[in-house]
Amino acid sequence: MTEIHLARVLSFVDDPAVAGPAAVRYHERGAVIVGDDGRIAWVGEVADLPGGHRGAARVDHGTAILMPGFIDTHVHFPQWRMLAAPGRDLLEWLERFTFVEEARYADRMHAEASAEAFLDRLVAHGTTFAVAYSSSHAVAADALFAAAEVRGMGIATGKTLMDRACPEAVRDDPERGFSESAALIAKWHGRGRARYVVTPRFAITSTETQLRLAGELVRSHPTVLMQTHLSESPREIETVRALFPRAASYTDVYDRFDLLGPRSLFGHAIHLDAAERRRLSESGSVAVHCPTSNLFLGSGLFDRAGLSNPDRPVRLALATDIGGGTSFSMPATIGRAIEIARLRGSDMTATEGFYWATLGNARALGLEAEIGSLEPGRFADFVVLDPRATDLLAARDDLSETLEDRLFALAILADDRCVRETRVAGRKLHSKP
User: pLDDT value at position 88?
Assistant: First the structure.
């Protein structure tokens, strides 16, 4: 059934940091027409509604802001209940909590129940597409794909590859990891809205044999994504240097196995030298900023301005990194990214942050023709945000004079309470009671 959604309507056609105000499409009293195919049919001012749709059912969201659903480009499905697990640093945190929790995902029933809980939390926070790490068990990735398919929700995930430096319960061997990944690709990649991600966890937990086979998977399936971790913490980098003494750098470890490229997502990418940045830029690889996780684990401060150097720009994405990250909320993630930029002596507007969490992340994934904006033909994946959801937000909203004012308040103060409704392909998957 065709529906007309009325609200303050916000979308992007480009990066505001590059194109300025021309990148923003904002209608103070706007309308979005969703066709019965679950895609956007029209967007504009209410006063300009096409005559042929005037009789369609209407959903009036009042003064709430309707924008594209958020896209999370680095989140760990098996860690959804691990927020605030303590650890002195990344490696202790992995050993004490993460591997123990992920071992539970060998059980299909546990994986299926957790997939439902995980997706519930995503949509409750306005996230409509995620690139998710799974566990090392094929059944876990299969369960997440299946749960997303039932909801009509896009998901990108893959079996995590680990064949060393981890407990036996989460360890596989290179050949099994390769064959199980290939089977999952054959079953799920490109089926509906599903995408497969070849997923070596990071260089510490994969031998050269496993990294070589991961590279073979990427080469033999050129439309899949690849995700891993890169240069998150100093102790991690020292360990990689000891494990791969012939590599010039941490980035070079992955480069040697053909894992760099325009469909490759490198989580964190904090402590990079000039040669690493140059190589990431040349290869079109994506550095994924995970601000709440970096602050929580004390990993370091992401250099957004430096990575955006016009002489060797690195493609960027933004993510929550649950459960090292401390919030499922992309607005909260934007807020911490703003704070980190300021700590590094640069600036970032909230408008830029909301672009990053929508069209910017879609572009990083090569999915901008499907998601990330409210353009006709895109999936009707959108979130409705209430800028007055709490007493504090309402008081702050009284002072807002511009769209940037309102978005900035949401970035700093919002959580799931501001998410009034989340729709995927036009279907309501979450609404506030």
Answer: 66
